[in-house]
Specification:
By secondary structure, this protein is α/β, with parallel strands linked by helices. 35% of the residues lie in helices and 28% in strands. The chain is built from twelve helices and 14 strands. A hairpin with a 2-residue loop joins β12 and β13. The termini are far apart. The structure holds adenosine-5'-triphosphate. The site of adenosine-5'-triphosphate (ATP) has 12 residues, from β2 and α2.
Length: 330
């Protein structure tokens, strides 16, 4: 066993490791010192506006580009120097799937099985069935969405350890997206990981465990989706049978924009404040009550901005974030 192969097998704590990963094209720095680890069983949503550096990161991880500095590795195998080992571990869905126009889906499946020295035709047929993809049609006759589906079939059929997905569901209708999410969950339940790039949170929101935001080549934030959801704002409205005062509700930490007017109360509250607030509300006679959550995308935008501009508030300042998010929620 070569020293490099040995290193690959030993360093198996993380599925993906990016360390100071930098790529320059001439004077243009496409990626600037990105460091990131993705663990087994984890779906990592990699978000950023157009031109932020997502595809460059993925190409570096797939060994298609050589880093200017830093490293990218999969299960300890260096993506550039050990790309063959990496390709055995990874299923890749590019943004624009490269297919052979004249070959049918089944012929693509047979060809990829041949390249990998394994017969994955049964599994491919099962996944295609679930995605409602006809494998008998030549690639040139497939719509954009069906080309994406075929790329997904080819990526998952060999049950790789890591899936690298570059905006894989653009062009796929919402019902099929749900099926795709189920396939992804089955993959992670078996210990597999995924790097899932997108320019919108909505595309990764239901499946990502963590999200990272890349902007102008730099990783500006990494956050658990659960933590982001916990900070998302809820609009609370209540009408009471009796008159109430602001002082009765003002003490709940995190509650903001509190407005009490005779029998009515309105405010914005993060999830962490809801229990205490509802207990205070329900201690009075309630005639009407309403609580609705702002879409996560709005909370997210107020933190990080996805239009290439920085968000309005630093992520750590949860209280301040809540106020900004409220501005977006209305
Ligand atoms: N081969 C290349 N030669 C020169 N510049 C490049 C090359 N590939 C990417 N870039 C530049 O690197 C930057 C990052 O591009 P990249 O394609 O990684 O962004 P992205 O986040 O994937 O965007 P999109 O969502 O539009 O695909 C951009 O400024 C882009 O113009």
């Amino acid at each position: 066993m070569s020293p490099e192969t040995r290193r690959g097998r030993e360093d198996n704590e993380s599925m993906v490791q990016l360390a100071g990963l930098t790529k320059r094209f001439g004077r243009n720095t496409a990626l600037d010192g990105v460091s990131l680890t993705i663990g087994p069983g984890e779906v990592f949503g990699y978000l950023g506006p157009n031109g932020a550096g997502k595809t460059t990161t993925i190409r570096l991880l797939m060994g298609m580009l050589r880093p200017t500095s830093g490293t990218a590795s999969v299960l300890g195998f260096d993506a550039w120097r050990q790309s063959r080992e990496v390709h055995r571990l990874v299923g890749y869905v590019p943004g624009e799937p490269a297919l052979y126009d004249r070959l049918t889906g089944n012929q693509h499946v047979a060809y990829c099985s041949h390249l990998r020295h394994r017969d994955d035709r049964r599994r491919a047929a099962g996944v295609a069935d679930r995605l409602e993809l006809d494998l008998d049609r030549p690639a040139r006759t497939l719509s954009r969405g069906n080309r994406q589906k075929l790329a997904v079939v080819l990526a998952v059929m060999s049950q790789p350890r890591l899936l690298v997905l570059d905006e894989p569901t653009s062009g796929i209708d919402p019902l099929v997206q749900q099926t795709f999410h189920s396939i992804l969950r089955e993959h992670t339940a078996g210990g597999g990981s995924a790097l899932f790039s997108s320019h919108v949170l909505g595309e990764v929101e239901r499946v990502a465990d963590r999200i990272g935001v890349v902007r102008a080549g730099q990783l500006v934030a990494v956050e658990r989706l659960q933590d982001l959801a916990a900070r998302s704002l809820h609009r609370v409205r209540a009408r009471f049978a009796v008159e109430v005062s602001a002082a009765e509700f003002g003490g709940v930490p995190g509650v903001r924009d509190l407005l009490v007017d005779g029998h009515t109360l309105s405010c914005n509250a993060p999830q962490s404040a809801l229990d205490a607030l509802l207990k205070l509300v329900s201690a009075r006679e309630v005639e009407d009550f309403e609580c609705s959550e702002a879409p996560l995308e709005e909370t997210f935008l107020s933190y990080y901005g996805m239009d290439g501009q920085p968000g309005q508030t630093p992520p750590a300042a949860a209280g301040t974030v809540a106020r900004t998010a409220a501005g977006h929620a209305h």
